[in-house]
Amino acid sequence: MILCDIGNTTYHFLDKEREYKESVKLFDPSSFKDIVFYICVNVEAKKLLKHLKNWIDLSQYIDFSKYYATMGIDRIMACEAITQGVVVDAGSAVTVDIVKNSKFEGGFIYPGIKAIGKTYKNISNALDYSFNFELDLDKMPKNSRDAISYGYLKLLQSEVKSYNMDIYLTGGDAKEFVKIFPDSFVDEMLLFKGMKNIMKKADIC
Prior knowledge:
Elements: E1 2-6, E2 10-15, E3 18-23, E4 36-40, H1 43-49, E5 55-57, H2 73-80, E6 85-90, E7 93-100, E8 103-111, H3 113-123, H4 144-161, E9 167-170, H5 174-177, E10 185-186, H6 190-201
Parallel strand pairs: 1-4, 4-5, 6-9, 9-10
Antiparallel strand pairs: 1-2, 2-3, 6-7, 7-8
């Protein structure tokens, strides 16, 4: 069984236990002859896959009444992976979603680390700092780099922790965010787990 999470830049594959990525620009999905179950946020890639019968879009098996119309399929799959907790997907955007008793309760979106960094730089080159994930968020900062980091990280940390639930981290910056959520669970396979759960519900495993 081959699973694939297609983003804006990569095809992220899970072939049994083997995980690997291919470039969206360079990879030809028609070269695959095996059946592939996928989710996709890339509009152009979705157009290509629509005509390939061995590529099966898992979004058709989702009960969208549990979510909202414009919610990203990647966020939905992460929520489908757990029964209770807060999912923090730290990618180009940071999404935070709440799941209680397998029910999506809502969520919110922050700019990702790179995006917020560009925002500060656009205000002034004097604010062009990388984020300091090592700072003590229980103390007020006394330098510019920490002041920028604190303003973003403290707000996010406080909001996420306020739900008093297990925290699940995924996404490209998850290993940085675990520094401000030390008791969280880092799971880079979270979306794939959600995909497998959808397949079980649809009896297509």
